[in-house]
Amino acid sequence: MKWSEISIHTTNEAIEPISHILHEAGASGVVIEDPFELTKEREDQFGEIYQLNPDDYPVEGVIVKAYLPVNSFLGETVEAIKESINNLILYDIDVGLNTVTISEVNEEEWATAWKKYYNPVKISNRFTIVPTWEIYEPVSSDELIIELDPGMAFGTGTHPTTVMCIQALERTVKQGDKVIDVGTGSGVLSIAAAMLGAKEIQAFDLDEVAVTQAKLNIKLNKVSNIVTVSQNNLLNNVEGGAADVIVANILAEVIVRFTDDAARVVKPGGYFITSGIIQPKKDLVKEALIASGFEIVETILMEDWVAIISKRL
Prior knowledge:
The chain is α/β, with parallel strands linked by helices. The chain has 2 domains: 2-117, Alpha-Beta Plaits, CATH 3.30.70.260; 158-312, Vaccinia Virus protein VP39 (Rossmann fold, 3-Layer(aba) Sandwich). It has helices spanning 15-24, 36-39, 74-87, 107-113, 160-172, 188-195, 208-220, 252-255, 259-265, 282-291, and strands at residues 2-10, 30-33, 62-69, 99-106, 121-122, 127-131, 144-148, 178-182, 200-205, 227-231, 243-249, 266-278, 294-302, 305-312. Strands 10-9-8-11-12-14-13 form a 7-stranded mixed sheet, with helices on both faces. The protein has a 4-stranded antiparallel sheet with strand order 2-3-1-4. The termini are far apart.
């Protein structure tokens, strides 16, 4: 089978919404080429250092690549992707150069080449994310290992927004807590909460494919007895006062739409962790949280991204 590689030259800000657009169009994998990776300092955590080729990265901005099957609908699919990306401007999302190119690759090349981008990564004091095809030995007795298969374009858990969410969960989740994960994607945040001692976790995503992928990863990490995954729009029809912690790693524009629902669902004194926020929109989210009855406990910054830990008054 032949595949078409679609490559979009864009900005860090647009990575997540464009990745979502590509998934909605039927992409079965995404690759992000960010020149920041060339200068990022890495500890030799795993006994070897992976040498990156500067020729694979843009001089400025980032490149998001995805793979679509070559069929009679490919032209219409590409045009729909372009239109959806152009529409991001309506939400004040900077799409940068927004250059779209198409090339053809063989299935055999694609099936193995994308895996070179994913290696074990220690993302916090306790958590290490390990792709399912990697063999990894823990370096400490209290290290928590999350195994992920990123095959359906929901990421490997190493994006700054996800890393900050997991670090925030480490600060807030206690033994026996009830947690709700809004927009679960790969399920990585639910898995982390379970490993931190939560006794009951509800994971929601509006995307049916995300629900399927999250269930696979949750089963892989042996926390199916703790985490329930279902298709749901944000916190619609969720019982009030049901959660000790709510976590949502989604766009700022979406977060501000359901802060009132979060205040209804989380217990007094409970936490609402929000991420997926670009720095220019952090005040927008903070104002919505405060207006809904939360106090800002901590703001975490990583690269151009923000995560906010807030507490229900």
